[in-house]
Each structure stands twice: as C-alpha cells, then as structure tokens.
Amino acid sequence: MKKDAPHIDRKRRTQYVKRKEPFPDMQKLHAPAGAAALKNDALGELPEWNLADLYSSIDAPEVAADLARGEAECAAFEEAYKGKLANIAEGLDAGEKLNAAVVRFEAIEDLLGRLVSFAGLLYTGNTADPKRAKFYGDIRERITAASSQLLFFALELNRIDDRLIDKALQDAKFARYRPWVEDIRKEKPYQLEDRVEQLFHEKSVTGTGSWNRLFDETISSLRFHVDGEELAIEPTLNLLQDPKEEKRRAASDALAKVFKENLRLFSLITNTLAKDKEISDRWRGFEDIADARHLSNRVEREVVEALVTSVREAYPRLSHRYYKLKAKWFGREFLHHWDRNAPLPKVEQRTIPWTEARNTVLTAYGAFSPKMASIAQDFFDKNWIDAPVRPGKSPGAFAHPTVPSVHPYVLMNYQGKPRDVMTLAHELGHGVHQVLAAPQGALMSSTPLTLAETASVFGEMLTFRALLAKSDTTQRKAMLAQKVEDMINTVVRQIAFYWFERKLHTERKKGEITPDRIGELWMEVQGESLGSAIRIGPGYETFWAYIPHFVHSPFYVYAYAFGDCLVNSLYAVYEKSDKGFAERYLDMLAAGGTKHHAELLKPFGLDARDPKFWMNGLSLIDRMITELEELDGKGS
Q1: What CA–CA distance (Å, rounded) separates 52 from 125?
Q2: Is 563:454 a contact under the CB 8 Å cutoff?
Q3: What is the helix (H) or strand (E) element at residue 544, kind and residue range?
Q4: Pick from 3, 25, 5: nearest CA to 17
Q5: Is pLDDT of 567 > 60?
Q6: 285: left (phi over 0), alpha (psi -120 to 50) or beta
Q7: Helices 263-284 and 492-508 sit at what angle, rounded to 10 degrees?
Q8: Distance CA 3, CA 468 (A)
Q9: For the chain, how big is the Rg over CA atoms in Å?
Q10: Is the N or C terminus of the chain more exposed, i.e. has fewer CB atoms within 10 Å?
C-alpha cells in the first residue's frame, strides 16, 4: 500500500477499511472474465480487475447464499461453544476439541472475509455509485451483526489458565495454531467484559465505520478547478509533479481552496474519531496514545520510539539537505511547497506505457527470484489488477489480500509517471507476499503492518536498482533524485505525519480542536521536517485534511518508515549475501503473521531493537544524497 493511498486493514478482515486519495462511469459493476482493459493512446490498454473469483455480481445467488450461511454458521458456533471453553480446556482431550473449534472459527472468518472483500473492492471501484455504496453498507452491517456472535471466542480463550492452554497446545494439530493463540493472548490485558466488547463491535457500524465512509465519499466527490478543467483529487494531486511550475501552483491553489471550503467537515471527522479513540483507549487501559497501534503491529513501544528519534534527528542531513540541493538545481535559494515533488529541470519527462511498466517490474523480480516473478505474472494474466483512473474510483493504490481461499487484488490509478512504475512494483510486492502467506490460513496469514511493507518496499528497490544499472549519467541523477524523494516521502514525511498525530491526539484530550489549531500543528511538523529550503505558503495549512491514514488507521504511518529502513538494511545484506538469500527472503514472506519481527529478521543478522539498525537504514538515503552532490559537482 502506497504512502498516501486506500487501505485494507489486514489484521481484521471483517472490518474492511481503505485509505488514500481518488473518478466515464463503468457500464458494468466490474470487468467480466477475460476483459482486457480501458484503452488509452499514451498508456496502452489498462487492465480492469475481474472480481468473479469472489462473486460474479451483486445479484449473484451465491452472495445471498453465502451471507445466509455465514449468519447461520455464526449462530451455530456461538451455540456450540459460548460459555463452554473453560470446561473443554479442563478435559483430557482439550487439544483435540479446541483445535476443532479453531478450525471451524477459521472457516467462518474465510467465508465472511470473502463477502466483505467483494463488497469493499466493488465499492472502491466507484464510490459514487449509490448501488455499490448501499451494497457495501448492507454487507458490512449484516457481517458486523453476525460476527458479534463470534466475539466471545477470543475472550473466553484468553480467560483459560496459561497452564491449561500450554497443555492443550501439546496436541499436534492444535499446535499449528500456537502463533495465533499466543497472538490473541497479548491482547488479554486490554480486553473488556463480553457485553462491552459486543457493544463496541456493533456500534462500529454507526460510529467509526460511518465517519470513515463519510470521509471516503466526501474525498471522492470533491472537484478541483485547474486551468478551466474540473478534476477529481487523484489527477489534481498528480499535477504537483507536472514539469510546469504554473500548473503545479494552480493545482496547489485549487487543492487548498477546496480543502478550506470543506475544513469544518474534515475537522469534525478528525475531532470525533480522535475522541472515539481516546474513549476506547481509556476503557481498555492503554497508557500511550499509540499503544493500541503498537499492539496491533506486534512491535514494542521502545522500538518505535527509537525509530522516530533516529529519523527526527536525521532531518537536517536528509530532507533539509536534499531540498537545499534541489533548490540549487532550480537556481533558487528555496522552493515553494508546490515544487517539493517537481521533476528535475531539463530532464525529459515521458509517459511510460503499461506494457513497459509491467515488463520492467517482472524483469526486476525475475532477476531476483523466478518464483517471485511467476507469482507477480499471475496478477497480469488473470486480471487481478485494476489500473485505469475513473470518475468515482478510490484514489491511490493498494493490494488487498481478500481471503486465503481466493487471491489478492491490486488497485492502481496508473498515469504513466515513473512513480507509477514504482507504485506497481510496490503493490505487486504486497501481492506476492499475500500469495506466499495464504497457506497460513485466515487466522495467521496477515502480517503486522510493520512487516507488511517489507515486500512492497523491497519490490520497489529491486525495480529501482534494475533501472539504475541501465541508466546513463543524466538518467542516473534523475533516478537517484526521484528515489531519494520517494524515500524521504516514505521515511521523513511519514514520521512527520506520526508526530502530527501525536500532537493532535494529545491536544484532543483537553477538548475539541479548531480547524485553525489543527492547521498550526500541521505547519509545525511540516516546517520541522522539510527545512528552510521549502517555503510553506498560505493554503498548505489545510493539506492535512486529505490524508486518509489519520481517519482510517491512526498511527499507521510509522509502518512505512519501519518498512523502508528495514528494507534498506535487508538489501544491504542481499548485496553481500550468498545465493541462498532469495530463498530465505521468500520463507520470511511465507511465514505471514506466525513469527515476531525479531524471529523473522534473525536469519539475516538484523535486530530492530538495536539503534544501529535504524542508522544503517537511514545511511542509505544519506549516501544517495552524497552521490547526487558529487554528480552535481561534476556538472552533470
């Protein structure tokens, strides 16, 4: 999932949410089997996904049948096990019976996940379609209601004495689920009484779920007037990378104008969800405002604090230093905020056709591992990708794993930019990861967010290195600059986002925050992270409003910095390693959520608890900036 893009919560499949920015309405709900794509003269044929592997249509009889079966299975499971797990754990055959219960529970999760994945993916294809929106809302409501009958299961398992659980896990079949059992027991200190948990669960539809949906539909419906054109948010944001400064400024002004016009609504959404989180955290007993996210990510607070401290201390030698160099390339002392992602001057900008993007990524993947390329090839051959920009389509990019019994899908808004090629490499990295982890099953295939970005960022790095090796000096400078900017966006920008969230949620505890104050907090962290070479002008104080992570998944953003620094360290090992690295790497991805990050990184000699780990990851960005300075000194 790309930095500012729609998001699928991989930890709880029955709570489908999305994240990032936004689009002729499709004549069909989704492309039929074998459909190739929409045609664009510059880009070639762009594929649309075929969701028939989930369900053929909204009205397919299988949808109604599976929904009814799912509701019946939830009710039957509750009848069979609620209030009985303690007695089962005391029995001689506890392991066998608990295993049977978990197997049954996992099958229900897969069934419900298939339904909600179909509804969610369909909705992201066109959030402006009332029929899709209603279907998505209705499915979520019914699945939330049905799955509330499953809440007791994890709660009761956590009440079983550790001694009895350990004894039951000696059963060979039940032992397979040890990682899942140990995982849910980490949440034991924060779980509430059953009826409170059920209330939180059921009210999520009318609470956080509704506010998330309001944000999504509002963002997708916004229109921005740029030089006589009316654009949705995705193509407007894309103009911030236009070679012409007047176009970039016009896009920035249009964004600021529309964000300001909707600021009261975005502020209300932000204040409401921040307060909702504070209530939940207080009831559950979390000490720090980000502890719930750390628990979900299965990462220790001190590890995240070490990452954040390392990145913030590195601002001067990374972002501040790079933007000063970039301003020099433009012949200026500073750049305006709308020039931050501008392409380098006097560097040819060309549109990259879809087939070239596909071949570039597959070739890079294949050079590393034929197996990795083969899995990625399926996404193209079997219509698992939705690439065109369309009215109403969810903005950004993501890879959604759906459920292990099916396969992942990738959403993009491909416009032929070099960054779009990197986005394709990124999302296919997620897709490969999800395919490899699927055999772990519905309960253990999902990876904590801190590790979920590993395969995606590694896929980007493979593609970047493959392209860099074939470039001349001029191209090398342009590619290095783009990669540095992407890494700054991934590391520096995301830690700045995290710091903004910390300030916002801390201040929200004292009362509601005005739109102006939110803007002030935003400008503080942006100024600190970007440095004096970026002049942040009027209007930019509203740009916090479109970032979906703040709405859908508070404190999610540090996972990007975690993943990028991890991959930088991992890639350094790869460059010095023997031939067995690819196999060890794929084994790591195949583990899914069955292992802690310390265990997964051990075969590579890496430890995220070591402060040097983060410094090594950041040093790669430092070295790239140094190379750019040296190329600049040579007059290239």
Answers
A1: 14
A2: yes
A3: none
A4: 5
A5: yes
A6: left
A7: 80
A8: 22
A9: 24
A10: C
Q: Mutual orientation of helices 515-530 and 263-284 as an angle, nearest 10°?
A: 80
Q: Which residues, including other chains, have CB under 8 Å from residue 265's CB and lie 6 or more apart?
A: 214, 218
Distance from C-alpha of 536 to C-alpha of 441, rounded to nearest angstrom:
48
Both tokens of 132, joined, read: 């899709």
| Rounded Cα gap, residues 226 and 232, in angstroms | 10
Q: Which residues contact 92 (CB under 8 A, 6 or more apart)?
A: none
pLDDT per residue over 350-369, tens digit each? 889 999 999 999 999 999 99
Does a structural domain hold residue 187?
yes
Where are any strands of DSSP class E within 233-288? none
Q: What number is the average pLDDT over the span 413-437?
A: 94
What would the two tokens of residue 397 be? 């990019």
CATH number of residue 144's parent domain: 1.20.140.70
Outline where 288-417 has alpha helix (H): 291-297, 301-314, 321-329, 354-368, 370-381
For β-strands 335-336 and 409-411, DSSP reports them as unpaired
Could you tell me if residue 270 is inside a domain? Answer: no
Q: Which of 462, 464, 432, 426 is nearest to 447 (CA)?
A: 432
Amino acid at 546: Y
Q: How far apart are the C-alpha atoms of 14 and 20, rounded to whole Å? A: 20
Distance separating alpha carbons of residues 574 and 585, to the nearest angstrom: 9
* E strands in 409-514: 409-411
- H/E stretch holding 400 reads strand 398-400
pLDDT of residue 635: 58
Structure tokens at 285: 């007993």
Residues 383 and 48 sit within 8 Å (Cβ to Cβ): yes
Instruction: Count up the domains in the chain and report the number.
Output: 1
Q: Is the pLDDT of residue 6 over 50?
A: no
Calpha distance 121→132 (Å, rounded)? 10
* Secondary structure class of 512 (helix, strand, coil): coil
| Per-residue pLDDT tens over the stretch 190-203 | 988 888 888 988 88
Rounded to an integer, what distance in angstroms lies between the CA atom of residue 552 and that of residue 9?
9
Nearest to 372 by CA among 381, 361, 360: 361
SS3 410: strand
Integer Cα distance of 244 and 343 in angstroms: 9
Sequence-distant (≥ 6) Cβ neighbours of residue 629 within 8 angstroms: 325
Sort 8 into a burial class: Cβ within 10 Å, 0-12 / 13-18 / 19+.
Answer: buried
**Token duo for residue 353:** 């056709």
The residue type at 530? L
Nearest C-alpha neighbor of 297 from the set 581, 569, 566: 566
User: What helix, strand, coil percent values describe the chain, rounded to 5?
Assistant: 65, 5, 30
Inter-residue contact 14 to 112 (CB < 8 Å): yes
Between CA 368 and CA 365 the distance in angstroms is 5
Secondary structure of residue 229 in the 3-state scheme: strand
Residue 573 belongs to a domain: no
Checking if the pLDDT of 636 tops 70, the result is no
In whole angstroms, give the CA distance from residue 303 to residue 84: 39
Between strands 44-47 and 37-40, the pairing is: antiparallel
Is 410 inside any structural domain?
no
Terminal Cα-to-Cα distance of the chain (whole angstroms): 34
CA 464 to chain centre: 20
Domain that holds residue 160: 52-194
Give 150's DSSP letter: G
What pTM was computed for the model?
A: 0.80
Residue 219 pLDDT: 93
